[in-house]
Amino acid sequence: MRVLLIIFFYTITQSLIAQKNTVFLELGGQGGITSLNYERQFNNRTTGLGVRTGIGASVFEFKPNESDSGSIAGCAICGVNITTPRISFTMPVTLQYLIDISNSNYMEVGLGSTWQLISPSIFVHHAVIGFRRQFGYQKRWIWKINFTPIIGVSGENIQKDSEPTIWGGISLGRKF
Predict the structure, then answer these.
(1) Could you read off the pLDDT of 127-152 as tens digits, one per residue?
(2) Nearest 10 degrees: Cα torsion 73, 82, 88, 121
(3) Would you say residue 120 has pLDDT above 90?
(4) Radius of gyration of the chain from Cα atoms?
(5) Cβ neighbours of residue 77 under 8 Å, at least 6 residues apart?
(6) What residues are paired with 34 via a beta bridge?
(7) Mind listing the pLDDT tens digit for each residue in 155-173?
(8) Measured between alpha carbons, how far is residue 167 from residues 44, 97, 118, 132, 147 in Å?
(9) Residue 43: is it exposed, middle or buried by C-beta count within 10 angstroms (0-12/13-18/19+)?
(10) Are 48 and 41 a contacting pair, CB within 8 Å?
(11) Looking at residue 159, what DSSP letter applies?
């Protein structure tokens, strides 16, 4: 956990003097259901090694919250009940490498972990492979699509076996 916090604060302080920063909203992907992310390249080019971190929300690995259950509308007689999943906050951190394909198109590969802030907390480990496109005035806007298989989960309340789970996400953001 200490390493994740050091990486997070390092990327924030570097953003004050950096020119290769990106902020983007992601649906699906490494943060769970949705996340707001900050990305920083370690060099002064668009390609190469970088890190991303963010804040998100997830319902993965949830336990039903018994107080939020209720009957399905119109079916109170049949006794069918539903439960509402517990939403937890997440903090994805990924070390990634951008490869210039051509003409503002990039391939993104990386490895990371997402800290899921539930009690007790868990870490969801994932790989990343995706496509990114820069567009707009001075190529400051990005969209991307990623394949992010979950390759493992660690923590006290593990309810997932060790086989990989297919997952992915789409993003839209701005470089500054």
Answers:
(1) 999 999 999 888 889 999 999 998 88
(2) 170
(3) no
(4) 18
(5) none
(6) 27, 57
(7) 776 655 556 788 999 999 9
(8) 31, 19, 21, 17, 6
(9) exposed
(10) yes
(11) -
State pTM to two decimals.
0.74
Tell me the C-alpha distance between 50 and 152, whole Å: 22
- What type of residue is 45? R
Q: Could you give the C-alpha distances from 17 to 10, 12, 14, 21, 40, in angstroms and in order?
A: 12, 10, 6, 10, 11
Provide the token pair at 11: 């990327």
Task: Phi first, then psi: give them for residue 31, nearest 5 degrees.
Answer: -90, -5
- Enter the DSSP assignment of 40: E
**Phi and psi for 68 in degrees, rounded to 5?**
-100, 5
* Contact between residue 95 and residue 10 where contact means Cβ atoms under 8 Å apart: no
Q: How many CB atoms lie within 10 A of CB 163?
A: 8
d(CA 156, CA 52): 26
Three-state secondary structure of 51-104: EEEEEEEECCCCCCCHHHCEECCCCCCCCCEECCCCCEEEEEEEEEEEEEEECC
Reduced to 3 states, what is the DSSP secondary structure of residue 33? coil
> Is the separation of the CB atoms in 155 and 121 below 8 Å?
yes
**In what helix (H) or strand (E) does residue 3 lie, and over which residues does it extend?**
helix 2-14
Residue 69 CA to residue 106 CA, distance in Å, equals 45
Q: How many CA atoms lie within 13 A of 90 on its CB side?
A: 32
